[in-house]
Each structure stands twice: as C-alpha cells, then as structure tokens.
Amino acid sequence: MAKLDETLQMLKELTDANGVPGNEREPRDVMKKHIESLSDEIMYDNLGSLIAVKKGNAEGPKIMVAGHLDEIGFMVTRIDDKGFLYFQTVGGWWEQVMLAQRVNVMTRNGNIMGVIGSKPPHILPAEQRKKSVDKKDMFIDIGASSKEEAMEWGIKPGDSVVPVCEFTVMNNEKMLMAKAWDNRIGCAIAIEVLRKLKGENHPNTVYGVGTVQEEVGLRGATTATNMIKPDIGFAVDVGIAGDTPGVSDKDAQSKMGKGPQIIMYDASMVGHKGLRDFVTDTADENNIPYQFDSIAGGGTDSGKIHLTANGVPALSITIATRYIHTHAAILHRDDFENAVNLIVEVIKKLDADKVKEIIFN
C-alpha cells in the first residue's frame, strides 16, 4: 500500500474504527482527535453525536455540516448450544453481499473474529440453490465449540458486530477502498471543512457534526439539530456511483472523480432550491466540478435537519461511491477534496443577508 499522507492516515483511522448504530464510541473518539484542535468547543447531544463549534469573526448565521458516525452492521441476538451466533441486521443489508464475509464481534473483552455462514449449497435442493439465502438462516461462526465457551470469551446478546475490511489505497492511488465509507467520509469532510476555514475571514458559526444512528432512522441528526438550531444545514454522505458494468445513466448517472453530487431530492426531502442554486453558483464561480443526482430509495440526515423547529434550508452533498452497504466500498479522493473545497467556499460567502435571500429564493 502507498505511504499514507496526513489526510489518508485520518481516513484510515476513521474507516478502520468500528461503530454500528448505538455504539459509535470508536469513530467518535477518532473524529474528536482530528477536529478538537480546529474547534472552539466540543459538545455532545444525549445520544452521543459529536458537535464541534468554530466561530467566525462575527455573530453570523449558524452553519451545520453533518456526517454520520455509524456504519451498518449487526447485533448478536442469541448464542446456540454449539456456539454459533444468531444476529439482527442494524441498518440496511442485501443478503447477496453477506455470506462468507469476515466480521468482528465487539465484546467488553475485545474483538473476536468470525465469519457469516449458512447451510452449504451442496446439501440444498436444486431449486433452493438458485435463491439467495435469507438473513434469518445465516449465523456467525466464531470457532467456539459450545455456548458456554462463547460466553467465556465474553460474547453476550446485544454485542455489536462489524464488517472487516482494512483501509486500502488501490493501484490507482486516487481510488480508496474501505468499510464504513458510509459515512466516515462525511465525518472527514466535516473535519476538513473546519481545517480549511482556519484563518479565513467569515461571519458564521460553523458546526462540524458527527451524528449517530443515521442508518436506523436519522436519529442523531434529530437530536443534534435540535441542540444547534442551525440557519443552514448540509448533510455530507455517500451516494451511488453509476460507472460500473451493467449500470446505465437511467439507473445512476454519477461518475467517480467528476465532483461531489448535489442531491435534488431523496426519499426524505427535496433539496432547498435557493440553497441548491447558491451552492452550484458558488461551484461554477470557483471551477469546482459537481454532479446533480437524486436518491429515490434512500435518505440522508438532511431529512431530519430540514424539519427542525420552523424549518432549516438544507441540502445533501454526497460522494459517488461504489458498493455502499457492503463490506468493501470504493470512492475517489478528488471527489472528497472537491466537496470540502465547495463547502468552504459556500461558507465564506454566507452571511445573515445571504441566508435571508436563500430562504426566500
């Protein structure tokens, strides 16, 4: 693997950290490590979302830039007499990508490696072999010989289970593979936005946020936004890359390396038109590439941000990513850097008058 620069090292630490919904301590600690020195204050809501506050040079608008800390994973629900673990998915999983994948069971005594298993196809009826295995028929094999042995190792119902995939810089060094890009890349964007704003002249108070429990219902976005009460909100997340074999522009039109995605609508919201126009105008002025997209079958934290109090103009800015909601996803470093640059330029142009103009545009 290529030698990691400071940014890649941060991305490695964020994605290698384990944190399913309801148990985001590891990625939260990593985010705090990288964002604390860039902030005036670190706060937390009562669900565990991290809120880093960076004040500008005046009492201007509150701008929220939120990525979510949690990743999809599993939870142990029971241990059978032979020591196999049964589990509940936490977040959205597709059965086809789960079998024979390595996982870490997070116990109080440390992580225990396992693999997701099922009945072998060799003993299934011919018709059943053609079908995907239902999640309820899968289990996790940790190599234990009995329920008692598994419990002696510290495993209990309720333990979190996370995918295993080490951060990897690919041969094309712009291409980065890891678990949990959804959504540690959003957390990284929030960190880098605060880093790039250091020393910049603007009147706004910027909130770099790592929300919790997005994958199970945008829950941390609800509590964090209630705490912040922002004037403008950005959710930064992953989107769908449409540049793999078999995917047409009709299915998904964004391409990796062509700029961040400006989400026009998703299942949880319609992007605020005034804010969307302001963001794309700013991108055009600064020659920052971007792509329009929509997500009919999913949502982001913007879905809760925009409904806070009497309403918050909000927009989702996402990174085209291959193989999201699997063990190993891939994204393009240029898209990450252009998303950061775009949000920074937007914040530099915002003030109270501009926010009023956006709201009523």
TrEMBL record:
Question: Which cofactors are named for this entry?
Answer: a divalent metal cation
* Recorded GO MF terms: aminopeptidase activity; metal ion binding
Q: Binding positions for Zn(2+) 2?
A: 182, 215, 325
Detail which positions bind Zn(2+) 1: 68, 182, 237
List the SUPFAM superfamilies.
Aminopeptidase/glucanase lid domain (SSF101821), Zn-dependent exopeptidases (SSF53187)
Q: Which residues cross the membrane?
A: none
Q: How is the cofactor bound?
A: Binds 2 divalent metal cations per subunit.
Pfam families named among the record's database cross-references: Peptidase_M42 (PF05343)
Active site (record annotation): 214 (proton acceptor)
A biological process term (GO) from this entry: proteolysis
Q: Carries keyword Metal-binding?
A: yes
Listed A to Z, the keywords are:
Aminopeptidase, Hydrolase, Metal-binding, Protease
> What family is this protein classified in?
Belongs to the peptidase M42 family.
Q: Which PANTHER family match?
A: AMINOPEPTIDASE, AMINOPEPTIDASE YSDC-RELATED
Q: What is the designated name of this protein?
A: M20/M25/M40 family metallo-hydrolase
Q: What is the scientific name of the source organism? A: Guptibacillus hwajinpoensis
The taxonomy runs: Bacteria, Bacillati, Bacillota, Bacilli, Bacillales
